[in-house]
Amino acid sequence: MNRDTALQIGRFIILVLIQVMVLNHVNFLGYLNPYIYIIFILLAPININKSLFLVISFILGLIMDVFGDSGGVHAAACTIIAFFRPVALRTVFGLSYEFQTVKLSNLGFGERFAYVTIMVLTHHIVLFSLEIFNFSHILLIAKKTLFTSLFTIVITLLVLVLFRRKDS
Fold first, then answer.
1. Angle at 48 (CA atoms; ends 51, 40), nearest 5 degrees
2. 64 touches 70 (CB < 8 A)
3. SS3 annotation, 6-30
4. Each residue of 30-80: pLDDT tens digit?
5. CA 97 distance to own-chain centroid
6. Residue 34 in contact with residue 155, Cβ under 8 Å?
7. Which helix (H) or strand (E) holds 124?
8. pLDDT tens digit string along 78-116?
9. Who's near 19: CB < 8 A, 6+ residues apart?
10. What residue segments make up the domains of the chain, in order of their start?
11. pLDDT of residue 102
12. Cβ(160)–Cβ(103) under 8 Å?
């Protein structure tokens, strides 16, 4: 096992543990939980095997569903953002993504913010739409998506800044 694989496995385990043991119990203002476990999907290598990445993302969401008793909504949301990730990368980074030279740690705040925002909003729209699954509650879906996304984006950007790798 090489260093990058070990880093990805470690990141997966640490994010799952933090999410399950700490953040799932936050309930800021009664209903806001930051979902930072998706950092694993955000930081996955650009050149990862697409099928393997979809399976790993599904498993990540499934683990969240098992611990949160949420019936598959996290698995669906994670699989969808893993599938959508190349589109988000191409949209935000353009040619840098096409030539696989994107490193989140080397980017300016604007690009990092745009990428994180697109991915978090997509995840949360899917998550809360499936969780509530009733269009008569569209305002509740919008409210939970907006506020939880803002909370998650802020926490995610803080984590990315605090734990940035200095090796490049």
1. 95
2. yes
3. HHHHHHHHHHHHHHHHCHHHCCECC
4. 778 899 999 999 999 888 899 999 999 999 999 999 998 898 999 999 999
5. 18
6. yes
7. helix 109-132
8. 999 999 999 998 888 876 665 566 666 667 788 889 999
9. 35, 36, 37, 64
10. 3-162
11. 66
12. no
Strand-pair partners of 32: 28
Grouping H, G, I as helix, E, B as strand and the rest as coil, residue 74 is helix
- Token representation of residue 33: 């939980």
Q: Rounded CA gap, 28 and 14, in Å?
A: 22
Radius of gyration of the chain (CA): 16
Tell me, what's the pLDDT at 40?
Answer: 95
The length of the chain in residues reads: 168
How far from the centroid of its chain's Cα atoms is residue 35's Cα? Answer: 7
Q: Three-class SS of residue 161? A: helix
**Cα–Cα distance for residue pair 123/83, rounded to 1 Å:** 11
Alpha carbon distances (Å) from 23 to 67, 100, 103, 167, 168: 12, 33, 27, 29, 31
Token pair recorded at residue 157: 């950007």
* Distance between CA atoms of residues 119 and 86, nearest Å: 11
CB 33 within 8 A of CB 27: yes
Q: Which amino acid is at 147?
A: F
